[in-house]
Amino acid sequence: MKITDIDYFKTHPKLAERYSDRKVSLNDIDNLAVARIKTNNGIVGYGEIRVRGYWTPPPDREIEPLIGQSPFDIFHNDLQPELGGALYDVMGKHLGVPAYKLMGQKQRDVVTVAAWTRPAPPETFREEIKRAVSDGYNIFKMHTSPYYDVIEQTRLAEEVAPENFRIHYDFNGQGRTLGEVAPLIERLAKDHPIVGWIEDPLPRTDVNGWQTLRKKSRIPIIHGGGPVLGGFQEVMLGFADIYMIGGFSIPKILELGSAYSLANVQTIFQHTGNTLTKALALHIACVLPTATGHSINLDDQYSEDITTKTIPVTEGFSPVPENPGLGFEVDEAALNKLAGQNPIEVPKHLGVLCLPGGHKIYTPSLEGTQRFTGREEGALRGFNTQIWEDDGSSEFDRIYEFVQNEGKFEDKPNL
């Protein structure tokens, strides 16, 4: 079996119906790269991964050396994850086995999965929690942000979540020091048991901060990947309780996952895209002994897909695919349709930061509290951020023009 063709597509699936009014905050998540491999024996394989809007396919000089080779000769190379996924799809279909059989010994039949959304106002987050519960999830990951009060987000989530539901907060790795983040996490642990994990609470270069916080925190601390020190040195230095893998080449994921397993360190998997991406994540997670944390994949974000079937979620779990390759057939008509669609168009808008004392600060887009209050993310209570889309009013036009020239517009309360 030899590779005859490698094609790339940039697809733009429509987002779920519930996101019709969140085009600003969800900008750029509808960009998915798809790789397609054809072989001389008629087998076609596909792989997929979420990419940034500025992504372009690899140049011909990187693709041409792969033409004419056997997938089995190159699949251990450090290739892009969508191309690596397509190689495993081809090889599994050729041998008539699921992709995980080419990766290692299967450890489990199902993998815990998590729902996801971009940072959202507390009321919107509460609705997302309700949606996730109805869709079969019992874990939800969301980034915190300087736009919203994390305590209020958590409080409203608790109003609708069942007892066994847990939130995984990503603190983004920047914008906080130990002096601010330690008491915040202590408060979450004491008052809000729904918070199950904290990811990247500090900059990844703050070795002492990570070590100190891990000893203090009753909530498990996650290191979100993107190793600064090399990948395993963070484990040796005791940065975190759990380490995240995903998003890069399959050999690198398997290498790190195996190393974490040898150290008896739990891993969480994050590999984002649609059904094909989730399928690959499930194949990988099922062979790594300590990949017993949840998998974050974002397939719950889209109303369209290129596969003919999707992956169910039952009681918080998704089954590992058992059909050959990645386990899913691709509809070429759907692939061409999604490749021909345009990405989300961000509407003309303003950001409106509403401070607890009544002040409003209008900005060109979403802006956090740090710039305008001097406080770290998570240090302020009782604030909120709104998105004001162009409503055709003269008031919008007036403030929009001012903000474009001056950078911000302050509206003080009536005193």
Poorly predicted ranges (pLDDT <50, ≥5 residues)?
A: none
Count of helical regions: 13
Spatial order of the strands forming the largest sheet: 4-5-6-7-8-9-10-11
Outline the biggest β-sheet.
8 strands, parallel, barrel
Class of secondary structure makeup:
alpha/beta
Content of β-strand:
15-25%
The shape is globular
**Which sequence of SSEs, written as H and E, runs from N to C?**
EEEHHHEHEHEHEHEHEHEHEEHEEHEHE
Tell me the Rg in angstroms.
22 Å
**What would you call the quaternary organization?**
single chain
- Total strands: the figure is 16
N/C terminus separation: 78 Å
Polypeptide structure, described:
- Helices cover 30% and strands 20% of the residues.
- It is an alpha/beta fold and 415 residues long.
- It is globular and about 70 Å long.
- The model has no long low-confidence stretch (mean pLDDT 95).
Keywords:
alpha/beta; 415 residues; four-stranded antiparallel sheet; globular
Summarize the SSE layout with pairings:
Blueprint: E1 3-11, E2 32-39, E3 44-50, H1 60-63, H2 71-74, H3 81-95, E4 110-117, H4 122-134, E5 139-143, H5 150-160, E6 166-170, H6 178-191, E7 195-199, H7 207-216, E8 221-223, H8 233-236, E9 242-245, H9 250-262, E10 266-270, H10 275-285, E11 295-296, E12 317-319, H11 332-340, E13 349-354, E14 360-363, H12 369-373, E15 384-389, H13 394-406, E16 409-411
Parallel strand pairs: 4-5, 4-11, 5-6, 6-7, 7-8, 8-9, 9-10, 10-11
Antiparallel strand pairs: 1-2, 2-3, 4-12, 13-14, 13-15, 14-16
Helix pairs in contact: 4-5
